[in-house]
Structures are given as structure tokens and as C-alpha cells.
Amino acid sequence: MKAVQTETTGSIEALRLTDLPEPQAGPGEVLIRVEAAAVNFMDLMRVKGLPFDVPTPLPFVPGAEVSGTVVALGEGVESLEVGARVFGASGQLLNGGWAELTTARAAGLAPIPAGMAAEQAAGLTVAGAGAAIALIEAARTAPGETVFVPAAGGGFGGYAVQIAKALGATVIAGAGTPQKRQVALDLGADHAVDYRTPGWTEAITELTGGTGADVVLEGLGPQHVGESLSILAPFGRVVVYGVLPGYGKIVDVDALAALVNDPSQAKSVTGFNVTHWLTHRPQASLTAVGRLLGWIADGTVTGPRITSLPLAEAAHALTLLERGENTGKTVLIP
Ligand SMILES: NC(=O)c1ccc[n+]([C@@H]2O[C@H](COP(=O)([O-])OP(=O)(O)OC[C@H]3O[C@@H](n4cnc5c(N)ncnc54)[C@H](OP(=O)(O)O)[C@@H]3O)[C@@H](O)[C@H]2O)c1
Prior knowledge:
By secondary structure, the protein is an alpha/beta fold. The chain has helices at residues 41-47, 118-122, 124-138, 155-166, 178-187, 200-207, 222-230, 253-261, 274-280, 282-297, 314-322, and strands at 2-5, 16-19, 29-38, 65-73, 85-89, 101-105, 109-111, 146-149, 170-174, 191-193, 213-218, 232-240, 268-271, 306-310, 329-333. The chain folds into two domains: 2-123 and 304-332, Quinone Oxidoreductase, Chain A, domain 1, CATH 3.90.180.10; 127-274, NAD(P)-binding Rossmann-like Domain (Rossmann fold, 3-Layer(aba) Sandwich). Strands 3, 4, 5, 6, 7, 14 and 15 form a seven-stranded mixed sheet that branches. The protein is globular. NADP nicotinamide-adenine-dinucleotide phosphate binds next to helix 1, helix 3 and helix 4. The site of NADP nicotinamide-adenine-dinucleotide phosphate has 30 residues, from helix 1, helix 3 and helix 4. Residues 10-332 form the Enoyl reductase (ER) domain.
């Protein structure tokens, strides 16, 4: 079968389209004929050899989530049948999806909702479910609140804009280019600001009449967290869901001290990871995902724009993500 693999970590250029033996479904797993495989930041981090919370065994076939058709069942699998069309996490270690065939734990898969294209289903777990669980469970977003969404022209951010709107919030989108700010407004954001230029927090202060945002999703990194804290309203929550290159290693100590030294403001910062929520808080997570699927079914959430590229263009897709030149969600088609 065709797959994209790297023998070493450290460089996107090391990725090769190659022929590999077909994988076998182990106990509790199924074999999936992949229809689409998402390109996520975690694939980039692992290919580049950056710190990641599960091991990256070499040689490595990236691809943490896929959609496709079940073609074989491993020992003990009763929840799925051959022929079922499914989406969800691939591999034992969130890997192996950039291939014609991949294995996945049956417990980490769900049926592709009726009417949904395989391309959208492929990116629904990390970006879609991630944004839903972050906003509904981690941030406890309430109607009438103001939510700031960074990288709103991207995958996670695109879902977050529409989910926050569905929850009855006012949404301020952050995006690095005029084109991406327009994308965010088209998705339903009430306002869009350039959040990568110094002084961006002033725009948020102005848009909220000096109060600040109730929920701030923070996906850039330590240096940006301090700025996010500075635009937080009383009782506000910063949900840190991502760390990107170029945003330092140290959180602004004064910003944290302000939070701790004035507890009457009741502000908080929390970390977030979709895999950890799905694994350790499955009931709450699946309830949030159920609400997302309901909004998708009734058209409230359409999701970010999807760009489909052939598997052979995996390195190009990762390069765009690394440069921040992607818009919406990219998926690979074997
Ligand atoms: N915790 C979780 O469960 C979870 C789930 C999904 C994603 N994430 C994290 O969220 C972040 C975005 O991941 P994603 O896969 O969803 O991609 P994405 O939403 O498409 O985000 C990429 C966007 O981030 C912005 N960006 C800002 N600084 C950047 C930099 N130094 N390098 C590259 N892009 C930069 C760019 O948009 P602008 O030009 O508009 O700034 C770029 O288009 C990553 O840190 C990822 O690990 C976390």
C-alpha cells in the first residue's frame, strides 16, 4: 500500500511517498481503507522532532486522524462491522493515517454522520471535537459572553468561531492576514482583529467597552499567554490549547502575578488537550461532541474550509502549516 513515511525526525523534506506492507488489525483494532486523513499541527511537531506527549517511533507514518471504511476487524471487536464508514483517531500512537490503509482502536471511532463528506469527517476529531470540548467543558462558555478565538482562519479556530456563536457568545476572531480575518467573519465572527501585531490587545479592550473577554482561547504560546491574561474580564477563563514556534518559553510573570495577587477578580488559566479529555473525561467530552454533531446536522456549524490534497503532497501541506500559510483544514486523499 502507498503511505507517506519518514525514516528520521527533524525535517519535512525527509517525508517520502513509499510502498509499505499492509498493516494488520490487532486486538480491539480495525483496519480502515482511508478516504481522507487530516493534517494537524501535531503531525508537524512529530515530523520535526519537537517535544510531543506520545513517542514517535521510527520509521514514522504521520496521520493522527482519518475517515474511511472498515475492511477488517481485529480480535474482540464487536462494536463495528466490515463496511462501516467511520472517523476518528488512527494508530496506537496517533500515527499511521497518511496511508491507503491504517489501523485504529475501535473505541476511538464513530460512524461518519449521514450526509457528511469523508473530507470533513477526517478533521472532525482534533479540530472540531477539540474546539467543542474546549468551549463547552473547559471554558464553560455561557450565552451572552464574549469569546476571543485566535488563528480563526485555521482548523481549530474555524470550528471555535462557529461553536462559540452556537453557544450564544459574541465572537472576536484573531487572524494574521486580512484574507483570514474575512474568512473568520464569513464563518460568523462578530469582529476580527490582527492578533499578531503588538498592541492587538487594545482592539479587544475597545471592542468589549473596556471589560475584556470572558473566554480567551490561547493557541500561540507562553509570551502570548501574558497578553491573553491582560484582556480577560473578571471571572474570565484563558484556555491554553496550543503552543506554536516563536512565542518564547516564559510566561509574563507580572501578568500571572496580577491574577494571583488579586483573587477577587476570579480569573483562571487552564490547559487543554482534546485527546486527554476524550480519554479521561469521556462522558462530558462525548456530550460536547454530540452537541457539535447536532449543530452540524442542522447547519448551524459548517466548519472551516477544507482543502484536499493528494497523499503525495503531504510535505507541501506540512510546509504551509509550518509557515502559517494554511487557511481552514487540509486533508490528504490516498
Ligand atoms: N490542545 C488540543 O487539543 C489541540 C487541538 C487542535 C490543535 N491544537 C493546537 O492548535 C494550534 C493550531 O493547530 P491546528 O492544527 O489546528 O492549525 P490551525 O488551526 O490551522 O492553525 C494554524 C494557524 O496558526 C497561526 N499561527 C500563528 N503563529 C504561527 C506560527 N508561528 N506558525 C504557524 N502558524 C502560526 C496561523 O494563522 P494566522 O496567520 O491567522 O495567525 C496559522 O494559519 C497548534 O498549536 C496545535 O497543536 C491543539
